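Batch job 17 of 40 flagged for manual review because the log was empty.
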Amino acid sequence: MNASRKLKAVAAGVGAAVLAAAVLAGCAARLGMTPETPATAPEPPQGLPVSMLMSDHSQPVPQGDVMEDPTFRYLAEKTGTVLSIEFLPHHKYNVQMRNKLFGGHLPDVVQDWRINPDLYAGGKLLALNDLIDRYGPHLKRAIPQEAWDAVTINGNIYGIPEAANGNAPSSRVIYVRKDWMDKAGVRKVPETPDEFLDMLRAFRDNDPNGNGRRDEIPFSSRADFNWSENLMGMFGVTPSGNHLLDGVVIPDIIHPRMKQALAFFRVMFEEGLIDEDFLIQQRNAWEQKIQSDLVGSWNHTTDLAWDWQDRLNRSLPGRGAEVIAIPTPRAPGVEAVGMEMNAVKKVFNVTANAKHPEAIVGMFDWLVTEEGQEFVNFGVPGVTWTKAGGSIRYDRVADTENRAAVWRMMLLNLVGYNKELLTVRLGPEAAGKLDAAYAIARKEGIPNPVAGMPALKSEMRHPDLSRYGPVFVRSAAQIVLDHQPVDYFDEFVAEWRAQGGEAIVREMTEWYLTNRKP
């Protein structure tokens, strides 16, 4: 993000007419900007209440009155707001959020991972175009167009998005133990599915963890085909994706190339190249295997590129463990690979209940300014960091002990990538790992013709037919485990359509033709 320039103080000899014009700027001046020119040293509005409903992102967020917390109090003071935030448990957020909304609880801002479908359908969201034009000039510059497109329906912006990690719409990459590659004699990064299989075979056969046992797990993932999406993405499909095929939008779980992907998984399973527990394995067991020097490759999010390296540094000290992100290998004839494109991480929906929407937009606008980004990355100035002569001195230990560092970026960051601040916050080695993962992900991504589509009513009526639902998972497992031939996929597709899938396809296609067709 380009650093915002500090405005010079108004000279003492400014004429009365200019001063009068400044007074007439009204609310825009109080928020520190005019429709044309963003200001960076405003007199903020005073005490405008803003209520929010947010996930706690499984982090130790402040409890009770957030205005008693130094981090939120500083944000409120800088933006002239009085914040009231209710946090809900992350693993129950969607259910509890819907219960509150249906129960009549409508705060000013509702955090979601998309345009909230219930609020949109009920006409309870504000179109933000004019407000962002007037009070969000920094937002318009800092957040990429792809993220704005993801929260726009029929030309109207219905939420303030957080840009995807690293401004890379493909949010996941394949991680590989580079030191295992070296020990197993793998000289080049695989570029095709067949080359990827050859690498996994080398991991299986050449004892890269050096313990004299054949206990290596070439590739590991988690239950119900989770965290193996980029392997399916070699063939241009993911379980959560959709494609426009012959004028109709279909979910990728019934796309013909999913059949190829499942045949690939079958080879992996038959040859012992994938974790034998991959269909039932939960997070803790999966992570423990990786950290115990048993796993050569796995699939995960780009923003954890350094986290995985750091974990192995601590669990395998002196072993020379090296984690790298690699581009998703590409099957012949496939153009787009990787993960389904998603340009946003979360969305702040501004509701029709908001009495001061200009203050809400102004608050988020401040968060993406240079000053706001320093706050998001380092905390409250003078407490966990200082700045002198343009150089930032960050006390990482104090910020970690303060605990705000754990949740501040997750809750308040809107900018997908700020390499300069990332390097200061994490150090050059960590920033380098993240930069490499983001660079790969920015070159990948499978387009979704119905990106931003609200939840489907037809899919709600048929939850078993959902993307990771039992009909797909059961049928895919039958193929991969060699209980059914690969051609059984065609029977699955017919069953899926007959059980209610045709209604899902019809609803998706209608939405596309109404909202997305060029």
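Reviewer: the log was empty due to a logging misconfiguration, but the result itself is present. Residues 488-515 form the longest helix (28 residues). Unflagging and moving on to job 18.
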